Amino acid sequence: MAKYLDFLQQYAKHLGDPQGVSEAEIKAIEQQFNVKLPLAYVEFISIFGKKKGRILRNYSSEVSYLAQNRKDAVKALASMGNGSFAIKDSHFFFGEWQGLSSYFFDCEQQEDDPPVYVLDAGKAEVFKPSFSQLIREELNKVLKFDGVIKK
Q1: If pLDDT is split at 50, 70 and 90, which confidence band does 106 have?
Q2: What's the Cα-to-Cα distance from 142 to each of 3, 31, 44, 91, 113, rounded to whole Å?
């Protein structure tokens, strides 16, 4: 199944002890949030959805956090006052970092490997050009820590 995250396969022993979600659980998430999830993210949660292991380890990225991530993003944006950015129903908040920054992609774009945005201090900006690039960079951090690649 892996297409966008196939680079993870050769480093399985460095990923920790992740636990994924089933196809039925993925469909339930799509129904709950009324979105069609990008394939790269589906691959990710198929591996790391219930227990993230060492990838995105400082983020609230397991599927159990999804509803709270969105609520926190809405609350944080509201506390910033009336800004130019508005959260849309198609914005899918897959991660949060220390309650300060929210990470999302826009499901309305219907891209298989969408750009990742960060919402911080009331502003949304492109964080990474694709979801798979974010995961690749997170893997590289793990591999540097493990001494597999030089710093």
Answers
A1: very high
A2: 21, 33, 16, 28, 22
Tokens 């951090």, residue?
Answer: 141
Mean pLDDT of 114-142: 94
Instruction: For residue 112, count other CB atoms closer than 10 A to its CB.
Output: 16
CB within 8 Å of 43: residues ≥ 6 apart: 1, 2, 3, 4, 5
pTM (predicted TM-score): 0.91
> Which secondary structure element, helix H or strand E, spans residue 71, and what is its range?
helix 66-79
Any idea of the CA torsion for 61, 67, 109, 30, to the nearest 10 degrees?
100
The pLDDT-based confidence of 18 (bands split at 50, 70, 90) is very high
Please count the other Cβ atoms lying within 10 Å of the Cβ belonging to residue 39: 19
Nearest of 39, 41, 108, 32 to residue 70 by alpha carbon: 32
Amino acid, single-letter form, for residue 105 = F
